[in-house]
């Protein structure tokens, strides 16, 4: 006769590489869950190391550190069962494992069978493939362990069902991209219905370099109905009861994690917050130009860290309009951030004076524009060095795509909130954020974008309108379409060929850009690895 079980879903923000700290956190939370009546607690994939640990997995002391952490966890499993993810070396091979501890003993260990090595994932670089299901017979229940990517294929769940499982514990490190949450829920519901199984989906939460894990863990009944939904972008401990083959929620569900601009905005906030917090920066600073990119970046920074940890700097030059200065000052005041204005004119003039001999007889070109951006970069980095605050860069995905930014100028900095956000989405996100409370002056939202690096300059003088540019970029970057296919979609050949050429020749620039939040399935980080030197010809 099976007993009723209370199970805790532990959605946590672990620090990659801090094995001792993560083990301690796992022990504390297990104790806390036990006090709340849980018989079993489930942590996420590679909870012990944090995900993705990347080449830390190759460090010689990995196994020793993992064993030390697991000893503490085993000791904490006397009165509560603990399920968690950890790397495990056996016979010279490393596996991405899920383990089940109770009474101080490991009652089962499962090695992940489906290793993702696409998009940002690179698990075949580190892990060997498992080939066995793991179904643990505990207190009259048959509990199967699976790890993240396993659930995106039919075989591991089918194997577990064939081995008699009635409940699948799926531990995850599943990063956010737009639309991902509904994909996960639909996927698990289809496994549930196909095999008449209930499933727990436990995801980690928080930012890690370019990745943002949204959490949003859930439990699903054998009929494919969601039973419990944990919040997105927050740590949480949810409880469910498992009794006579039925799951029921013991804690309140969060609102369903919908795939709107709101979840995109929260992903950006979460990415910035965790990058700053986990690197222990006291705060951030950025150049505030009166344009939309720096305005949105400022709003994200303040939502992530609080106004007292954010500084904005206006650095005017001869081409900076009065309305840019006024709008920047107004936004800084609305948001309550420290604000200062430093003219770049004296340093620009000093550079030009020193270069006058070298430049004699040569026409004015982008060199002079880049020098303005570089004066700003130097000032921001000096302020960063002095205060310890990190510089946020403001380039969006459209600009990074076509190389519309200056090396060692506006590209100087540590982290980029909008790195994976097209310019058209920048406008939509700014409007979304202002809908919550007005933080970006209306004029900033309405002015045509301009780099203000030359008299009366507008971005769209040099580029097709952003709606057209972004549509071409999405086809080329996200969908991998050829120039011919994009032209066949109705775009002007001249625009398509020019944009593709710009994307191709600016790989070197993107390679030197700071990392930033990834929110699509094809960001400019680990998702897209093109050779800088290459002879590929655009066309078919
Ligand atoms: N393949 C390669 N591998 C390595 N390095 C390479 C390279 N090709 C050029 N380079 C180097 O890169 C230099 C060119 O890059 P860089 O100095 O950045 O300059 P560049 O790309 O020529 O100019 C920057 C462009 O971005 C625009 N911009 C700047 C700032 C802000 C904004 C905005 O709206 O936000 C727009 C600006 O109007 C201009 O069109 C070359 O002089 C060379 O030193
Ligand atoms: N006058 C300025 N004062 C402070 N920072 C500036 C100034 N001009 C440019 N910057 C910085 O350089 C970045 C590049 O901005 P630029 O104005 O060239 O074009 P942009 O990409 O349209 O950005 P934005 O929409 O923020 O103006 C800005 O986002 C800002 O961080
Ligand atoms: N860690 C993993 O196995 C992640 C892969 C999986 N498809 C996801 O992103 O949800």
Automatic annotation (TrEMBL):
So where does deamido-NAD(+) get bound?
370, 399, 509
Name of the top EC class for this enzyme: ligase
| Catalytic activity, EC | 6.3.5.1
The protein's GO terms of the molecular function aspect are: ATP binding; glutaminase activity; NAD+ synthase (glutamine-hydrolyzing) activity; NAD+ synthase activity; nitrilase activity
Q: What reaction(s) does this enzyme catalyze?
A: deamido-NAD(+) + L-glutamine + ATP + H2O = L-glutamate + AMP + diphosphate + NAD(+) + H(+)
Involved pathway(s): Cofactor biosynthesis; NAD(+) biosynthesis; NAD(+) from deamido-NAD(+) (L-Gln route): step 1/1
Pfam families listed in its UniProt record = CN_hydrolase, NAD_synthase
Q: Where does ATP bind?
A: 287-294, 394
Specify which residues bind L-glutamine according to the UniProt entry for this protein: 118, 174, 180
> What are the protein's UniProt keywords?
ATP-binding, Ligase, NAD, Nucleotide-binding
Tell me which stretches of the chain form a coiled coil: none
Gene Ontology biological process:
NAD+ biosynthetic process
* Residue ranges of every copy of the CN hydrolase domain listed in the record: 5-249
One cellular-component annotation, GO: cytoplasm
Q: Does the keyword Phosphoprotein apply?
A: no
Where are the catalytic residues? 45, 112, 148
Tell me the protein family, please: Belongs to the NAD synthetase family.
Q: What does this protein do?
A: Catalyzes the ATP-dependent amidation of deamido-NAD to form NAD. Uses L-glutamine as a nitrogen source.
Output the NCBIfam families linked to this UniProt entry.
nadE, PRK13981.1
Q: What is this protein called?
A: Glutamine-dependent NAD(+) synthetase
Tell me the classification of the organism that encodes this protein.
Bacteria, Pseudomonadati, Pseudomonadota, Gammaproteobacteria, Oceanospirillales
